[in-house]
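User: As part of a screening pipeline, I want to sanity-check one entry by hand. Below is the sequence and the SMILES for N-acetylmannosamine-6-phosphate. Please return the complex as C-alpha coordinates so I can compare it with the automated output.
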Amino acid sequence: METALINRLKAGCIVSCQALKHEPLFGSDMMAAMAVAAEEGGAVAIRANTPKDIEVIKNRCSLPVIGLYKRIYDNSDIYITPTMTEVEQIVSAGADFVAVDATARTRPDGLALEEFIRSLRERFPSVAIVADVSTFEEGVRMMDLQADLVSTTLSGYTSYSLQQQEPDFELVRRLAGLKRVPVLAEGRIWTAGDCLRCFEAGAHAVVIGTAITRPQEITKRFVEAIRHRGEVDMNAH
Ligand SMILES: CC(=O)N[C@H](C=O)[C@@H](O)[C@H](O)[C@H](O)COP(=O)(O)O
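Assistant: Here is the complex for your manual check:
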Protein backbone atom coordinates (compact mmCIF):
# COMPACT_ATOMS: atom_id res chain seq x y z
CA MET A 1 0.00 0.00 0.00
CA GLU A 2 2.79 2.36 0.87
CA THR A 3 4.52 1.65 -2.44
CA ALA A 4 1.35 2.42 -4.39
CA LEU A 5 0.92 5.64 -2.44
CA ILE A 6 4.52 6.66 -2.98
CA ASN A 7 4.28 5.89 -6.70
CA ARG A 8 1.19 8.07 -6.87
CA LEU A 9 3.32 11.05 -5.92
CA LYS A 10 5.91 10.49 -8.63
CA ALA A 11 6.74 13.55 -10.73
CA GLY A 12 3.92 15.39 -9.05
CA CYS A 13 3.19 18.62 -7.30
CA ILE A 14 2.25 18.36 -3.63
CA VAL A 15 0.61 21.47 -2.23
CA SER A 16 1.24 22.40 1.38
CA CYS A 17 -1.95 24.01 2.71
CA GLN A 18 -0.98 25.50 6.04
CA ALA A 19 -1.92 28.68 7.88
CA LEU A 20 -0.87 29.36 11.45
CA LYS A 21 -3.06 31.19 13.98
CA HIS A 22 -1.64 34.62 13.19
CA GLU A 23 -2.15 34.25 9.42
CA PRO A 24 -5.17 35.69 7.54
CA LEU A 25 -6.25 32.35 6.07
CA PHE A 26 -6.11 30.48 9.38
CA GLY A 27 -8.91 27.95 9.72
CA SER A 28 -9.72 24.44 8.55
CA ASP A 29 -12.41 25.60 6.10
CA MET A 30 -9.93 27.86 4.36
CA MET A 31 -7.32 25.13 4.20
CA ALA A 32 -9.85 22.64 2.85
CA ALA A 33 -10.81 25.15 0.14
CA MET A 34 -7.12 25.50 -0.71
CA ALA A 35 -6.80 21.71 -0.89
CA VAL A 36 -9.80 21.41 -3.22
CA ALA A 37 -8.33 24.16 -5.41
CA ALA A 38 -5.00 22.33 -5.46
CA GLU A 39 -6.76 19.12 -6.48
CA GLU A 40 -8.57 20.94 -9.30
CA GLY A 41 -5.22 22.27 -10.40
CA GLY A 42 -3.73 18.80 -10.67
CA ALA A 43 -1.83 18.37 -7.40
CA VAL A 44 -1.04 14.77 -6.44
CA ALA A 45 -1.20 15.23 -2.66
CA ILE A 46 -1.70 17.77 0.11
CA ARG A 47 0.60 18.52 3.03
CA ALA A 48 -1.41 19.72 6.04
CA ASN A 49 -0.87 20.75 9.64
CA THR A 50 -3.02 19.85 12.70
CA PRO A 51 -5.48 16.99 13.18
CA LYS A 52 -8.43 19.32 12.57
CA ASP A 53 -7.18 20.60 9.19
CA ILE A 54 -6.29 17.05 8.12
CA GLU A 55 -9.74 15.74 9.01
CA VAL A 56 -11.59 18.49 7.16
CA ILE A 57 -9.30 18.21 4.13
CA LYS A 58 -9.75 14.42 4.01
CA ASN A 59 -13.52 14.92 4.02
CA ARG A 60 -13.57 17.34 1.12
CA CYS A 61 -10.68 16.35 -1.08
CA SER A 62 -9.78 12.95 -2.46
CA LEU A 63 -6.00 13.38 -2.51
CA PRO A 64 -3.66 11.61 -0.10
CA VAL A 65 -2.52 13.78 2.80
CA ILE A 66 0.94 14.17 4.28
CA GLY A 67 0.01 15.11 7.83
CA LEU A 68 2.09 16.90 10.40
CA TYR A 69 1.38 18.61 13.67
CA LYS A 70 3.38 21.70 14.57
CA ARG A 71 3.66 21.98 18.34
CA ILE A 72 6.10 23.96 20.37
CA TYR A 73 7.52 22.53 23.58
CA ASP A 74 9.62 24.60 25.99
CA ASN A 75 12.48 22.12 26.12
CA SER A 76 13.15 21.48 22.42
CA ASP A 77 13.63 23.23 19.07
CA ILE A 78 11.71 20.45 17.35
CA TYR A 79 8.21 21.53 16.31
CA ILE A 80 7.16 19.32 13.37
CA THR A 81 5.34 16.31 14.88
CA PRO A 82 7.70 16.20 17.85
CA THR A 83 6.32 13.19 19.77
CA MET A 84 4.11 10.13 19.47
CA THR A 85 1.20 12.12 20.96
CA GLU A 86 1.04 14.27 17.83
CA VAL A 87 1.55 11.24 15.57
CA GLU A 88 -1.44 9.47 17.11
CA GLN A 89 -3.66 12.49 16.57
CA ILE A 90 -2.79 13.05 12.94
CA VAL A 91 -3.11 9.36 12.11
CA SER A 92 -6.55 9.31 13.77
CA ALA A 93 -7.46 12.34 11.68
CA GLY A 94 -6.75 10.32 8.53
CA ALA A 95 -3.23 11.23 7.44
CA ASP A 96 -1.85 8.82 4.82
CA PHE A 97 1.72 9.93 5.45
CA VAL A 98 3.18 11.31 8.64
CA ALA A 99 5.86 13.99 8.34
CA VAL A 100 8.22 14.17 11.31
CA ASP A 101 11.22 16.26 12.25
CA ALA A 102 14.11 13.87 11.56
CA THR A 103 16.96 16.04 12.77
CA ALA A 104 19.28 14.80 15.50
CA ARG A 105 18.18 17.53 17.89
CA THR A 106 16.85 16.58 21.31
CA ARG A 107 13.17 15.69 21.20
CA PRO A 108 10.82 17.07 23.86
CA ASP A 109 10.28 13.61 25.35
CA GLY A 110 14.01 12.83 25.22
CA LEU A 111 13.43 9.89 22.86
CA ALA A 112 16.30 9.08 20.49
CA LEU A 113 15.37 9.44 16.81
CA GLU A 114 15.86 5.68 16.24
CA GLU A 115 13.46 4.87 19.08
CA PHE A 116 10.90 7.34 17.84
CA ILE A 117 10.93 5.93 14.30
CA ARG A 118 10.88 2.34 15.57
CA SER A 119 7.83 2.91 17.75
CA LEU A 120 6.10 4.88 14.96
CA ARG A 121 6.57 1.89 12.64
CA GLU A 122 5.37 -0.59 15.24
CA ARG A 123 2.28 1.39 16.15
CA PHE A 124 1.33 2.43 12.62
CA PRO A 125 2.77 -0.05 10.12
CA SER A 126 0.58 1.12 7.24
CA VAL A 127 1.42 4.82 7.55
CA ALA A 128 4.24 6.07 5.35
CA ILE A 129 6.93 8.13 7.08
CA VAL A 130 8.18 11.38 5.56
CA ALA A 131 11.47 12.39 7.19
CA ASP A 132 11.89 16.17 7.27
CA VAL A 133 15.63 16.81 7.23
CA SER A 134 17.95 19.81 7.03
CA THR A 135 21.24 18.26 5.89
CA PHE A 136 22.65 15.44 3.79
CA GLU A 137 23.81 13.52 6.89
CA GLU A 138 20.33 13.65 8.41
CA GLY A 139 18.86 12.36 5.14
CA VAL A 140 21.29 9.44 5.01
CA ARG A 141 20.54 8.57 8.61
CA MET A 142 16.84 8.43 7.83
CA MET A 143 17.50 6.26 4.79
CA ASP A 144 19.36 3.90 7.14
CA LEU A 145 16.30 3.97 9.39
CA GLN A 146 14.16 3.13 6.37
CA ALA A 147 12.01 6.20 6.13
CA ASP A 148 9.62 5.91 3.19
CA LEU A 149 10.45 9.37 1.87
CA VAL A 150 13.00 12.02 2.76
CA SER A 151 12.08 15.68 2.36
CA THR A 152 14.38 18.71 2.35
CA THR A 153 11.81 20.68 4.41
CA LEU A 154 14.16 21.86 7.13
CA SER A 155 17.15 22.98 5.08
CA GLY A 156 17.63 26.59 6.12
CA TYR A 157 15.53 26.17 9.25
CA THR A 158 18.08 24.62 11.62
CA SER A 159 20.97 26.71 12.93
CA TYR A 160 23.56 24.45 11.30
CA SER A 161 22.03 23.94 7.83
CA LEU A 162 22.65 25.96 4.67
CA GLN A 163 20.91 29.33 4.84
CA GLN A 164 19.87 30.64 1.45
CA GLN A 165 16.96 32.27 -0.35
CA GLU A 166 16.50 29.64 -3.03
CA PRO A 167 15.52 25.97 -2.64
CA ASP A 168 18.32 23.62 -1.60
CA PHE A 169 18.78 22.04 -5.05
CA GLU A 170 22.16 20.64 -4.05
CA LEU A 171 20.70 18.75 -1.09
CA VAL A 172 18.04 17.27 -3.37
CA ARG A 173 20.71 16.26 -5.88
CA ARG A 174 22.97 14.62 -3.29
CA LEU A 175 20.21 12.71 -1.52
CA ALA A 176 18.41 11.64 -4.69
CA GLY A 177 21.76 10.60 -6.19
CA LEU A 178 22.01 7.84 -3.58
CA LYS A 179 18.95 6.20 -5.20
CA ARG A 180 17.91 4.65 -1.90
CA VAL A 181 14.71 6.43 -0.86
CA PRO A 182 12.53 8.83 -2.90
CA VAL A 183 13.34 12.45 -2.13
CA LEU A 184 10.83 15.30 -1.91
CA ALA A 185 12.12 18.77 -2.73
CA GLU A 186 10.56 21.19 -0.28
CA GLY A 187 11.19 24.70 0.92
CA ARG A 188 11.24 28.06 -0.89
CA ILE A 189 10.09 26.71 -4.25
CA TRP A 190 8.58 29.78 -5.92
CA THR A 191 8.45 29.21 -9.66
CA ALA A 192 7.78 26.53 -12.23
CA GLY A 193 11.47 26.89 -13.11
CA ASP A 194 12.41 25.99 -9.52
CA CYS A 195 10.26 22.86 -9.82
CA LEU A 196 11.96 21.81 -13.02
CA ARG A 197 15.37 22.26 -11.41
CA CYS A 198 14.25 20.06 -8.51
CA PHE A 199 13.22 17.32 -10.92
CA GLU A 200 16.49 17.65 -12.84
CA ALA A 201 18.20 17.17 -9.47
CA GLY A 202 16.32 13.88 -9.08
CA ALA A 203 13.33 14.81 -6.91
CA HIS A 204 10.53 12.26 -6.72
CA ALA A 205 8.02 15.10 -6.24
CA VAL A 206 7.98 18.75 -5.19
CA VAL A 207 6.18 20.28 -2.21
CA ILE A 208 5.06 23.87 -2.65
CA GLY A 209 3.52 25.89 0.17
CA THR A 210 3.88 29.65 0.41
CA ALA A 211 4.02 30.32 -3.34
CA ILE A 212 0.53 28.83 -3.71
CA THR A 213 -1.23 29.12 -0.36
CA ARG A 214 0.06 32.25 1.40
CA PRO A 215 -1.47 35.21 -0.50
CA GLN A 216 0.06 37.74 1.88
CA GLU A 217 3.54 36.55 0.90
CA ILE A 218 2.63 36.39 -2.78
CA THR A 219 1.34 39.98 -2.61
CA LYS A 220 4.50 41.09 -0.83
CA ARG A 221 6.62 39.73 -3.67
CA PHE A 222 4.76 41.82 -6.22
CA VAL A 223 4.79 44.91 -4.00
CA GLU A 224 8.52 44.61 -3.39
CA ALA A 225 9.24 44.16 -7.08
CA ILE A 226 7.22 47.30 -7.87
CA ARG A 227 8.92 49.26 -5.08
CA HIS A 228 12.32 48.11 -6.27
CA ARG A 229 11.49 49.22 -9.79
CA GLY A 230 10.45 52.63 -8.42
CA GLU A 231 13.78 52.96 -6.62
CA VAL A 232 15.69 52.04 -9.79
CA ASP A 233 13.70 54.67 -11.73
CA MET A 234 14.37 57.33 -9.13
CA ASN A 235 18.07 56.64 -9.20
CA ALA A 236 18.08 56.86 -13.00
CA HIS A 237 16.76 60.45 -12.91
C1 LIG B 1 10.28 24.99 7.81
C2 LIG B 1 8.83 24.63 8.03
O1 LIG B 1 8.35 24.70 9.13
N1 LIG B 1 8.14 24.23 6.93
C3 LIG B 1 6.76 23.88 7.04
C4 LIG B 1 6.58 22.46 6.90
O2 LIG B 1 5.58 21.87 6.95
C5 LIG B 1 5.85 24.74 6.21
O3 LIG B 1 5.65 25.92 6.96
C6 LIG B 1 6.26 25.13 4.78
O4 LIG B 1 5.30 26.01 4.27
C7 LIG B 1 6.40 23.96 3.83
O5 LIG B 1 7.54 23.24 4.18
C8 LIG B 1 6.53 24.35 2.36
O6 LIG B 1 7.59 25.23 2.20
P1 LIG B 1 7.39 26.63 1.43
O7 LIG B 1 6.28 27.35 2.15
O8 LIG B 1 8.71 27.34 1.53
O9 LIG B 1 7.04 26.31 -0.03
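Points to compare against the pipeline: The chain has one domain: 2-236. The radius of gyration is 18 Å.
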